[in-house]
Amino acid sequence: MTSLTAAQPAAAERTYANHGRPAWRRLLFTREMAIIFLLVVVLVVASAIVPKFATPVTMGYLLFDITPLLFIALAMAPVMITGDIDLSVGSMVGLSSVTVGLCSQAGLGIPVAALVALLVGALGGLVNGLLITRIGLPALAVTIGTLALYRGIAVGLLGTTAITTFDKWWTTLVKSKIGTTGVPTVMILFVVLLAAFAIMLHFTPFGRGVFAIGLSKDAAVFSGVNAERTRLILFVLSGLMAALAGIYYALYYTSARGDNATGMELQVIAAVVLGGVSVFGGRGALHGVIAGVVLIGVLSKALQLVNITSDVVSIITGVLLVLSVIAGSVMNWVQSRRVRPAPASTPAKTS
Question: Are the C-beta atoms of residues 257 and 185 closer than 8 Å to each other?
């Protein structure tokens, strides 16, 4: 008896596209690219209206002005991606600048004074993080409280006086430029920090955990992410970067005062949200955040050159911020409408 075995055809391997949209659409049609495009448009218009705007001198002073915002925004972006917020960064800039001034006045060198200021910033961020992650208090309420606390300590240490005497070598270094380009030397430090934060946020498991926490904290925890430790580290980094901005602030403006950088936290948050970070957490990219900071700086500098008051600059910044939030909500609504559930298959009738 012979048995016939039917040759079974090899099952065809089913493949799926890695993404639902082409790479060029995923790259170009984003909020970050929209902000970069808007920044280019504003630069072109400002250069046309104010001829001296596009000069290396003006661009150099623009970068000098926004350097504290750039430093703080690097750490504020991941904090907000997790769904938290840090409103104490402006007062920490003031407290760290006072720390540098007092240490310098006591005869300590600027490197030692800067190290002490960084420790103060890390301690302030640690206090925020512990209150939020260990005790479970809301980030908004905690950082509003520490905003007043750190500002009060800074003003209490100096009162209404200001320290304006610093080592001239360091103040000259902070104000120096790279050759004849007009680019501040401090931008080298910023580029190094930008690369470090970009790698951490976009190319490491830690960064993926940051986004996972913003999307769903419970899901992130079940996926193995230590959410509380991650958030604590981010608040410490936020305090460190605010302290670094305070050190720069004191040396560049040669002034250590308790009220330095008043209101800077609102500028940073506006730039971060304008740069594409969702106020609800879970999304954002550093290139968009940097573009948001530069856009606010360009608008402010261009309007100042045509004698527009700072109040109008604040109004324009607020309008842009509101529009960016509305645009993000509209984009999310459109994307949700485009996703259609697959039709349920009906069983075939048997006769």
Answer: no
Q: Pick the range with the lowest mean pLDDT from 41-50, 140-149, 313-322.
A: 313-322
Residue 13: CB atoms within 10 A of its CB come to 5
Each residue's pLDDT tens digit, 328-351: 666 666 666 665 555 555 555 554
Buried residues in 119-130 as b, exposed as e (16+ CB within 10 A): ebbbebbebbbb
Buried/exposed 282-319: b ≥16 CB within 10 Å, e otherwise? bbbbbbbbbbbbbbbbbbbbbbeeeeeeeeebeeebee
CA pseudo-torsion sign 33, 197, 214, 316: negative
- At 163 the three-state DSSP class reads strand
- Domain ranges for the chain, please list them: 32-329
**Cα 274 from Cα 317, distance rounded (Å):** 9
Structure tokens of 207? Answer: 């960064």
What is the tens place of the pLDDT at every residue in 67-85?
A: 999 999 999 999 999 999 9
31-54 confidence digits (pLDDT tens): 788 888 888 888 888 888 887 787
Q: What percent of the chain has pLDDT over 70?
A: 85
Tell me how far apart the alpha carbons of residues 118 and 111 are, in angstroms, rounded to a whole number. 11
Long-range contacts of range 225-233, CB-CB < 8 Å, 24 or more positions apart? 228/133, 228/134, 229/133, 230/82, 230/206, 231/82, 231/84, 231/129, 231/132, 231/133, 232/126, 232/129, 232/130, 232/132, 232/133, 233/129
Fold held by 32-329 = ABC transporter involved in vitamin B12 uptake, BtuC (1.10.3470)
Euclidean distance between the first and final Cα of the chain, in Å? Answer: 38
Per-residue pLDDT at 5 exceeds 70 = no
The pLDDT of residue 182 is: 84
Q: Which residue has the tokens 């500028």?
A: 267
- What stretches of the chain show up as alpha helix (H) in DSSP? 23-28, 31-49, 56-81, 89-105, 110-133, 139-158, 168-175, 186-202, 205-215, 217-222, 227-252, 264-274, 286-305, 310-338
Let me know how long the chain is.
351
